[in-house]
Amino acid sequence: MELKDTVGLMVSSDYKERFAAEYYQTLIRYKKLDVMIDKYYKNQLDFTPTCPIFVLKMQRDIMLQYIAMLEKRAKYEGIELEDVDL
Question: Is the dihedral of CA 36, 40, 42, 47 positive or negative?
Answer without folding.
Answer: positive
